[in-house]
Design a protein that fits this description.
about 290 residues; alpha/beta; Rossmann fold; 3-stranded parallel beta sheet; 10 helices; about 15% strand; binds guanine
Length: about 290
């Protein structure tokens, strides 16, 4: 058997970030200000803090100005709402991102709904999600991880139209929006979730399999159709004493065995992860162009 082609998200990201850097510089020279991204972090979750740091560094690397607020775990909903409203009104800020999850005492929906549609670079506002789901409408922004998955398929020339796609997971952040994106590209889409009967048989019929369910190495070789394109969105920590942190990240796909059977596969790390941040940078730069023009 031949091995799958490895879809290199890190390399693809580097290529796209070079294009974004040119566009960010063009915005700056045309309008006198760089694209600006505001990143709001609440509390002290280690993973969220790491993501936020990566996002800010990525902004600096491509010439996007980043603004940030770090609020304590016990911040009130009203205070957080005020921070969002201030960024809505701030002319130097073109994109607003509130890192999820939020602490339990805060109504996440209320916060996401408050982000100005024009600045909703995460694409989590129900108007943007609703537009994604409707034929003939275009959201102002498409959520970063789903957009990154589609961009990888596109750049590796994986055909989508008329193909069977299975999305494993139905989260608002990944599963649901990526299913709509695939359907908009004329795939026939099945969403498999925790209550689905015979998930394995459904997955094994997929020409394109998107795994976004958050279970370490759940997708084995016998879940995969020969030649399928497998996109692994999972980032699951598993204990590893040889690491300084005490753990390493694995995907939702058993990479070593699945790569012997799939046609294309994304590694973890180095697959979807870097693309998520790259799509955020792209959304922010395009948003700045739209707002400033
Ligand atoms: N938490 C996990 N993924 C994301 C994301 O894409 N955006 C935000 N804001 N929070 C997240």
């Amino acid at each position: 058997a031949t091995e799958a082609q490895i879809i290199d998200g890190k390399l693809t990201s580097e290529l796209i970030r070079k294009e974004i850097a040119l566009e960010a510089a063009a915005v700056k020279s045309k309008y006198g200000k760089a694209p600006g991204l505001a990143v709001v972090l609440v509390g002290s979750r280690g993973d969220s803090a790491t993501y936020v740091r990566s996002k800010k560094k990525a902004c600096a690397d491509v010439g996007i100005e980043s603004f940030g607020r770090e609020l304590p775990e016990d911040v009130s909903e009203e205070e957080l709402l005020k921070v969002v409203q201030d960024y809505n009104a701030d002319d130097d800020v073109h994109g607003i991102l509130v890192q999820l999850p939020l602490p339990k005492h805060i109504n996440e929906q209320r916060i996401l709904d408050a982000i100005s549609l024009d600045k909703d670079v995460d694409g989590f506002h129900p108007f943007n999600i609703g537009s994604l789901a409707m034929r003939g409408r275009q959201p102002l922004y498409t959520s970063c991880t789903p957009k990154g998955c589609l961009e990888l398929l596109r750049r590796y020339n994986v055909p989508i139209s008329g193909k069977r796609a299975v999305v494993l997971g139905r989260s608002n952040i990944v599963g649901m929006p990526v299913a709509h994106l695939l359907q908009a590209e004329d795939a026939t889409v099945t969403v498999v979730h925790s209550k689905t009967k015979d998930a394995q048989a459904l997955c094994a019929e997929a020409d394109i399999l998107i795994a976004a369910i958050g279970k370490a190495e759940m997708v084995k070789a016998d879940w995969v159709k020969p030649g399928a394109a497998v996109i692994d969105v999972g980032t699951n920590p598993v204990p590893d004493d040889s690491k300084k942190s005490g753990y390493r990240l694995v995907g939702d796909v058993a990479f070593r065995e699945v790569k012997e059977k799939a046609g294309f596969i994304t590694p973890v790390p180095g697959g979807v992860g870097p693309m998520t941040i790259t799509m955020l940078l792209q959304n922010c730069t395009e948003g700045a162009q739209r707002i400033l023009e």
